[in-house]
Every structure is written in structure tokens, then in C-alpha cells.
């Protein structure tokens, strides 16, 4: 989930606001989400951040203002949560998405693609594009960049919200947007944080300001383990990347966000009570925020943006159709994961020796000057003869793959993953056990949570000091364990199946996540602010 990118280019583009009514998504697993018919607005064109409301909008229902960041894991998750809130609010709310201009061409194209798809699907949502501004150039890391870039937009966010022609129910802010809590306070509008990752990470973030005072050395130099209420003792080597270097501004920003999360009117988290009881209880009891009122937490997950299956099945899915049930190990590493040849060779040897079937989504290092993983050049990345030798039991897919559809396939029996939280939930939704191979952002913490707290994963030895390198022998052992070998794999499979049932029950009507969504929707409708203090 959390972003991991560096930025070079700025793109300014004009937006188009398009309103339609009544959307219904049906998934191939039979899970159906309906949004209620909301008031219809005409198509509106918006220029460089100015909202040109149609007169009918002046009487529109109170709006929930979402502030997402741009990667799919953040944007689609928040948007999906917003849609579910609309459904739960029974037509009493509308949705406005404030789009901070993405800082790279690549992200801008991605975001535009998502918005186009949402428009085509008939979602009743306003996308309001803020004017572009120059991003910071003197930053040392992505977390610092994102936090500062968002903070710079505060006056524009304030102006855009104040300009909305309808009452504002609340601002719902991405993890990195906590500086905008000040905007909400200024406008006297409630501020909620949408936490795209899990309760374990939230417990750590809420605890971080106090940990910062207690642990005066770098975490990796401290003796013993880190105490995060609600979790087993956390080895410092499992802390998220931005926490590992206190001299880096990324760390300072993490401590800042941790402090500010506690100030929000509520934290909406993409987990279910049944998945993370202990961490959620610790947060609710105030054990993570001694001396401070704990924030109200709404676990509404799993929030997964399912799409209707395409008319023509994807090539990966067709390949899976020919494999026996639960026989294939899926390897896929999120939106940012990639490997250079030495690591790709180790994976190839490990897979070959494991003897198991596999579907490996492999992407290569960014092209010179680019910042995003490139499609894999298999001839350069893989050992000679590997594809030929494994052609009867393996598929290497060199570009973006439809991961959600793949995980839904009965042939998939285990998932070697970077451990992003969206990927994790997608896997658990289908009862697929995991082998987490953390690469960036908060994934080391997720790996620990999945193995030690949730028991749905088998542990993998990743050499963090060598850029998270994994040897062939370790991958071979891991795949054997995951796909049917020993006790650890068996337990993870059983637990993953339990979590599958828990996930599905949670979002059913009357389930724990549905009830949290209901409480939140009621809060939001109650709190709708008529004047935004222009
Ligand atoms: N994803 C995908 N195909 C790919 C790689 C990733 O569909 O080849 C999707 C995946 O299903 C998930 C998202 O991208 O929904 C990745 O989110 P996650 O939080 O797991 O990781 P991130 O990319 O944010 O690190």
C-alpha cells in the first residue's frame, strides 16, 4: 500500500466532471455492491481547479470530500470506501474527490485512467482537480515528499472545499494528508483519516510519538524488541522502512502523522474486527496513545475494488484454467516491486527446484530516467533455458497482471507477495495463504503481522541489509512450505481459510465491518456542516 516512488515531472491537465446515476458492480464471485440512486447532475467542465457548479448543485445532498493520493492502492481503496459509505448513507450523502495534481506523467496517466473508468461506470461523484503547483525538489525520501507536497496544497484545498455549493459532511484524508486536518478545523468540518493499511500499522503509528521519546537511539541499535500494544513484541528489524533512520525527514514526518492521527474525528481502517482484534482493542483502550483520547476507529474492510470480469479472460487466467486446484504458487510484487537479474536468477532457481507450478509476475528495473518498474525483458532477466525447462508447469508474466482475478482462481494455492495491504486482503478474501517478501514502505511490518499476529503466512528469510535479497534455497523452501510441505504451511492455509470466512461475514449486512460502516455513515450525516465558512 504505502507509496514508494520518486518524482521528476509535473503535469497540468484539465478536468471534466461528469455525473450519472445508479451504479451496480457484480463480481464473478457473486459479491454485489449497489450504490443508491443519487441526484443526477449535468456534465460539468472544470478548468484548473475552479469548480463551476450547475445551479442544481446548490441543493445537492451533503458531500463527503475525499483526499486520496494517486497510486491505485490508495486512490481506488479510498474511492471504494467512499462508494460504500454512500450506499450505507442511503442517498443522504454525495461524493467529491479533490485531486491533487499527480507529480509524474506516469501517475497522471494512471489517475486519469481511473477517473475515466469511474465516469464510464456511472458513479455519482465529482472529481475536482486542484491547480498544479511546483512540487518540492529538495526532499530526501518519498514520505517527506508526499507530506510536504500535500501540506503545500492546504490553501487550495481550503478554497476548493469552501467553494463547494453543498454542505460538507467531512473531509476524509489519505494517510499522508494529515496536515489538512488544519483545513478541516479552520472550516469547522469533521476530519477523518482513511488508513489504507492495517490496524497493526495504525497501532504502531499512534504509538510512535511516545516511542520517539522512549527510544533515543536508532531502533536497530536498541536492545530487545519494540512494544506495540496489541501485537506480539516487534523485532526492530520488522519496523517499516521510514522508521529505520531517525535522521531522515521521512521519520520526522512519520512521527508527525502518528501524532496527528490521534487528532482526527475518526480513523477509517481497511481491516475487519475479526482479522485484527487485539490491535484494534489496544487502540480503542488508549494503550497506544497514553494521556491522549484514543481516536474512534471504524474497521470497515476488506475494502476491495472488484471489477466485473472482462469479456475475454486474460491470458494468465486461461493458463490457470488448465492447472489443477490449489496447485499454483502466485508470485506478484505490487505496483512498485521489480527485480534485477541476480535476484531474478535466484527466484528462477528456487522455483525450478521446488518442483511446484507457478505464475510469476515479473517486472524489471525502471528504464533509464524512468521511476516505475519496466516490463520485464525475460531474455535478460532469466537464466538460460529456464522458460523451456519449466514450460509445462510455469508461466512468467512480464507486465501488469490482473491480480484480483488471478487470486480468485481455484488453481492458485499460495501467494508469494511483497505484502502490500491491498494484495494481502485480496488474498485472504479468497483464502489464499501468503509468503510475504517485504520490499518497501510498511511491508516489513505487514510481514511480521501476517506471520506472528495473524498466522496466515509462512515466514521468509529476507536479507534487509542486502536490499531484501532472498536466496534460491530459501525461496525453494518457502514455496514447498506454502504449497503443502510442513506444519507451518498447513497452519497458514487453515488460518487463511478462516480469514476468508471472517472477511466475507464482516462485510455482509449486519457483519462487523458493515456495522462500522453504518455507524460511520450516521456520524457523517449528523455532522454535515451547512456553512463551510467561505
Ligand atoms: N496489482 C495488480 N497487478 C499487478 C500488480 C499489482 O493488479 O501486476 C494490484 C494489486 O491487486 C493491488 C495493488 O495493485 O490491488 C497493489 O496494492 P498493494 O497495497 O498490495 O501494494 P502497493 O503497490 O501499494 O505497494
Can you describe what's shown?
It is a single chain. The protein has 534 residues and is of the alpha/beta class. The protein folds into three domains: 2-196, Rossmann fold (3-Layer(aba) Sandwich), CATH 3.40.50; 200-263 and 275-295, no CATH class; 315-505, Glycogen Phosphorylase B (Rossmann fold), CATH 3.40.50. 37% of the residues lie in helices and 14% in strands. It has helices at residues 72-88, 105-121, 142-152, 154-162, 181-187, 199-214, 249-261, 277-284, 315-321, 341-354, 378-381, 386-389, 403-407, 421-429, 443-453, 472-482, 487-507, 512-527; strands spanning 15-17, 24-26, 32-34, 44-46, 63-67, 94-99, 125-129, 168-174, 191-195, 266-269, 297-299, 328-332, 357-361, 363-364, 374-375, 394-397, 412-417, 434-436. The strands form five sheets. It has a seven-stranded parallel beta sheet with strand order 7-6-5-8-9-10-11, with helices on both faces. Strands 16-13-12-17-18 form a five-stranded parallel beta sheet, sandwiched between helices. It has a two-stranded antiparallel sheet with strand order 1-4. The protein starts with 14 loop residues before the first strand and ends in a 7-residue tail after the last helix. The relative contact order is 0.13. The model is unreliable at 4-59 and 530-534 (pLDDT under 50). Uridine-5'-diphosphate (UDP) binds next to helix 1, helix 13 and helix 14. Residues 1, 71-73, 332, 334-336, 361, 400-404, 420-423, 426 line the site of uridine-5'-diphosphate.
Amino acid at each position: 500500500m504505502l507509496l514508494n516512488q520518486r518524482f521528476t515531472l509535473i503535469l497540468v491537465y484539465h478536468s471534466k466532471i461528469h455525473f450519472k446515476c445508479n451504479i451496480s458492480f457484480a463480481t464473478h464471485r457473486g459479491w454485489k455492491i449497489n450504490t443508491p440512486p443519487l441526484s443526477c447532475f449535468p456534465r460539468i467542465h472544470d478548468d484548473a481547479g475552479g469548480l463551476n457548479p450547475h445551479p442544481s448543485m446548490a441543493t445537492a445532498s451533503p458531500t463527503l470530500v475525499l483526499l486520496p493520493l494517486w497510486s491505485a492502492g490508495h486512490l481506488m481503496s479510498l474511492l471504494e470506501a467512499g462508494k460504500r459509505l454512500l450506499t450505507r448513507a442511503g442517498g443522504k450523502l454525495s461524493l467529491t474527490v479533490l485531486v491533487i495534481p499527480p507529480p509524474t506523467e506516469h501517475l497522471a496517466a494512471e489517475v486519469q485512467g481511473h477517473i475515466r473508468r469511474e465516469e464510464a461506470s456511472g458513479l455519482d461523484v465529482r472529481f475536482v482537480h486542484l491547480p498544479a503547483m511546483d512540487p518540492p525538489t529538495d526532499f530526501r525520501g518519498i514520505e517527506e515528499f508526499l507530506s510536504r507536497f500535500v501540506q503545500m496544497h492546504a490553501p487550495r484545498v481550503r478554497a476548493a472545499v469552501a467553494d463547494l455549493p453543498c454542505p460538507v459532511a467531512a473531509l476524509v484524508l489519505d494517510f499522508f494528508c494529515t496536515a489538512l486536518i488544519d483545513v478541516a478545523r479552520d472550516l469547522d468540518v469533521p476530519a477523518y483519516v482513511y488508513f489504507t493499511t492495517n490496524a497493526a500499522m495504525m497501532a504502531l503509528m499512534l504509538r510512535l510519538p511516545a516511542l520517539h521519546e522512549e527510544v533515543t537511539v536508532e531502533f536497530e541499535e536498541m536492545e530487545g524488541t519494540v512494544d506495540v500494544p496489541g501485537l506480539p513484541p516487534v523485532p526492530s528489524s520488522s519496523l517499516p522502512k521510514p522508521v529505520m533512520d531517525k535522521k531522515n525527514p521521512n521519520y520526522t514526518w512519520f512521527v508527525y502523522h502518528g501524532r496527528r492521527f490521534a487528532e482526527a474525528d475518526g480513523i477509517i481502517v481497511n481491516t475487519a474486527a475479526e482479522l485484527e482484534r487485539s490491535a484494534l482493542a489496544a487502540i480503542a483502550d488508549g494503550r497506544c496513545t497514553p494521556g491522549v483520547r484514543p481516536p474512534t476507529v471504524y474497521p470497515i474492510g476488506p475494502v476491495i475494488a472488484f471489477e466485473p470480469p472482462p469479456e475475454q479472460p486474460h491470458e494468465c487466467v486461461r493458463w490457470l484454467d488448465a492447472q489443477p486446484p490449489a496447485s499454483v504458487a502466485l508470485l506478484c510484487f505490487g505496483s512498485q516491486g521489480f527485480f534485477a537479474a541476480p535476484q531474478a536468477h535466484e527466484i528462477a532457481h528456487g522455483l525450478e527446484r521446488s518442483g511446484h507450478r507457478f505464475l510469476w509476475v515479473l517486472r524489471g528495473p525502471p528504464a533509464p530516467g524512468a521511476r516505475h518498474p519496466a516490463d520485464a525483458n525475460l531474455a535478460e532477466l532469466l537464466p538460460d533455458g529456464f522458460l523451456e525447462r519449466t514450460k509445462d508447469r510455469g508461466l512468467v508474466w512480464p507486465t501488469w497482471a490482473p491480480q484480483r482475478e488471478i487470486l480468485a482462481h481455484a488453481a492458485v494455492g499460495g501467494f508469494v507477495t511483497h505484502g502490500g495491504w491491498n494484495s494481502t486482503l485480496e488474498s485472504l478474501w479468497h483464502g489464499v495463504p501468503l509468503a510475504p517478501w517485504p520490499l518497501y514502505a510498511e511491508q516489513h511490518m505487514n510481514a511480521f503481522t501476517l506471520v506472528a499476529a495473524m498466522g496466515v503466512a509462512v515466514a521468509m528469510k529476507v536479507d534487509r541489509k542486502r536490499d531484501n535479497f532472498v536466496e534460491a534455497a530459501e525461496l525453494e523452501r518457502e514455496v514447498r512450505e506454502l504449497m503443502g510441505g510442513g506444519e507451518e504451511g498447513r497452519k497458514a492455509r487453515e488460518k487463511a481459510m478462516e480469514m476468508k470466512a471472517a472477511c466475507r461475514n464482516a462485510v455482509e449486512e449486519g457483519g462487523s465491518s458493515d456495522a462500522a460502516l453504518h455507524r460511520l455513515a450516521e456520524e457523517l450525516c449528523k455532522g454535515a456542516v451547512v456553512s463551510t465558512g467561505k
